[in-house]
Amino acid sequence: MLIIQIAVLMGLGFPAEGLARPASLEGPRNVILMIGDGMGVGQIEIAREMEYGKNGRLFLETLPHTALVHTDSANNLVTDSAAGGTALAIGKKTNNEMIGVTPDGMETDSILDLFKKDGKKTGVISTNTITDATPAAFTASVPNRWSGQEEIARQQLNNQVDVLMGGGRAYFRPEKQNGRDLIKEAALNGYTYVSNRDELLNAKGNKLLGLFNNGYMNFKLDRPLKGSKEPSLKEMTEKAIGVLSKREKGFFLMAEGARIDHASHAGDITSIWKETIEFDEAVRYAVEWAKNDGETLVLVAADHETMGISASEPLDIQHLKKIKATPQFMVSQFVKDQNSRSYRTASIKEVIKKYANINLTAKEIAAFNNHLLNSDNKVYPQYLAAWEIGSLIAERNHGGIITNKVRSLSSTGGHTGNMIPLFAYGKGSEVFSGVLDNTDIPKKIASLMRYKWE
């Protein structure tokens, strides 16, 4: 009681919900929010051990301020990416599958919108489709993520987001836009359009639309196999910052390493490693740029954790490092049985041996095919075969992941309610500490900027 009375007499007080900033703390000019989709402590630990060994560290681990973050949605202990992204964007909980709206369907400005209203430049980049859950949460509002990507593409361009980069070219094409060509319309409205790495590196202009794949951008592990001409996340981040920083008033950038989540869904430990390292390289670039700038806040977080990934003691790191392709690519090489959802035994055995150096038994192959024939999996059914192969490879290499049975029962395809880590660097980063709710993150950004949601 005495301590509280002294604090009141001295005019110190206690900030409500830890969101108020000290009056003497000057806010940043720029904010870069880096989101590793599905990236929990386990994914970070897998990447650290596989890249550097037990005595090494990822770059993001060196940032000076850290926190843990709860990620539940309005209607579920376990969030999906739509509700998770929305919480990070608008500072409010919503139901799973909803983007940029509250549970009653009301649209709300995102933190990106607040920056734009203040005259700052804005951008979102992702290795997912640019119209998918996380980038969409900052740039659009739709009641359901599964039926709204065409509408999201229209809203993103109508909202004049200065930089949009990722996959999802198909959603901007006439075939999905009732004859409208959104790419041509964007060019007429001042956007420079690029479709591959070389075009990106040479791009000029004050607004940029980069669409590097019809769907998701390729996994890093598969890019050589597919002859990919896509840029890395670091290259996208570098170009985005270059475009956005042209205006002295400042900018907001959200950059997502999305395929960490996709690799985790499949139990693809090799790609968890590769995708997390690619994300970490982008973080390094952003932080080093912020150090030189001196007026920038960089936050590194996630929307949720996926598949309960853990660095198990018997994990066969050396074998996992030699895997040459993702489960998704391997399945694309299988030969299907005629008039069936299953695959020919010989092709499965040959492909898994070639790319994963595993000799599957006839019993394992039969169990895999039987599961495909009898599964009623409703979440991403097109990836069921890849997820099953990934889980099988993870089990053979003693990986710590949720079982395929638990994944099949999950409405999110294997997300968990585990807290995620947050790392912060730069101007205002000291307010990000302790145990937070995901909605606190945009609220704290807004407080630092002296913005208020209406």
From TrEMBL:
Highest taxon above the source species: Bacteria
Alphabetically ordered keywords of this record: Hydrolase, Magnesium, Metal-binding, Phosphoprotein, Zinc
Necessary cofactors: Zn(2+); Mg(2+)
Cofactor binding note: Binds 2 Zn(2+) ions.
Name of one Pfam family that matches: Alk_phosphatase
Binding residues for Zn(2+): 37, 261, 265, 303-304, 415
Zinc is among the record's keywords: yes
Protein's UniProt keywords contain Metal-binding: yes
Residue numbers annotated as active site: 81 (phosphoserine intermediate)
Database matches in InterPro entries: Alkaline_phosphatase, Alkaline_phosphatase_AS, Alkaline_phosphatase_core_sf
Positions contributing to Mg(2+) binding: 37, 132, 134, 256
Annotated GO MF terms: alkaline phosphatase activity; metal ion binding
Family: Belongs to the alkaline phosphatase family.
Protein name as catalogued: Alkaline phosphatase
Species the sequence originates in: Cytobacillus oceanisediminis
